Amino acid sequence: MSSVETDNRCVAIIPARGGSKGLPGKNIKQLSGKPLIHYTLEAAKDCSLIHDVFVSTDDAAIVACAQQIHGICVIDRPVHIATDDATTVDVVRHFLDEYKTANGAWPKTVVLLQPTSPFRTAAHLVEALTQYNALNSDSNLVSVCVAKPVSWQGTLTITKGNQTGLFEFHHSGRQENRQTEKPNFVLNGAIYCASAEQFYQNQFLKQPLHGYVMDAAASVDIDTPLDFQWAEFLLSAKP
Asked: C-alpha angle with apex 125: 56 to 146, nearest 5 degrees?
């Protein structure tokens, strides 16, 4: 483990590269009249427990879009960590190196926010960080939502010969009633809270890992055109 000195700040890092293939230009695509990334930037800026908000990007259009919101800090992401193969950890490590160079220390807490979660609000961030701050210093926190019941779920695999439409079904073996089954939870990708060191060491998902529960509507994560259309519908349906 590293022994880098930390300050007492909580910072948000928003990774937003320009090369999305599933939904080209999605980070700045207009969602109900506002760039998608602005929903995350505004939530982070409005969270009273976050001191500074950073965007890591390789794209000039995203830089310009982020700078439309006062006080957002932009980190210029090098080409070698702006590829399809680059990981989120690579991006956060680069950010932490840049932060340490500028400030002489790491921040105490890092909140990783994907720009594809437009329904995650400042209120969610305050609740998640309040929960995180009450944990032991070696604990991490992630946002989760309830998964669909799995009582009768199984897997389908293509049969021998790879013949189209011919599958074998492997049942899970569980036959509980949906109403009585205990809920399962999955990561929804909206919030990750950990110390700078845990992120740098790629241990931000290690145990003890705590979950901040969000509802299904707030957990929408936009990766495809259909996701985007669903988000637009939800926004249009709001009173």
From this structure: 105
| Domain that residue 173 falls in | 148-182
Distance CA 34, CA 44 (A): 16
Give the pLDDT confidence of 134-155 residue by residue, as tens digits: 998 889 999 999 987 655 555 5
* Residue entry with tokens 């928003």: 14
Q: Are residues 25 and 70 in the same domain?
A: yes
Q: How far apart are CA 26 and CA 24, in angstroms?
A: 5
pTM flag (> 0.85):
yes
| Joined tokens for residue 5 | 């000195």
Shared-domain flag, residues 94 and 46: yes
Residue 239 lies in a domain: no
Provide the sign of the torsion angle of the four alpha carbons 89, 69, 115, 212, taken in this order.
positive
Question: Rounded mean pLDDT of the chain?
Answer: 88
What are the pLDDT digits (tens) for 92-127?
Answer: 999 999 999 999 999 999 999 999 999 999 999 999
Domain count, the chain: 2
CATH label of the domain that carries residue 106: 3.90.550.10
Which residue ranges of the chain lie beneath pLDDT 50? 1
**Domain contains 203:** yes
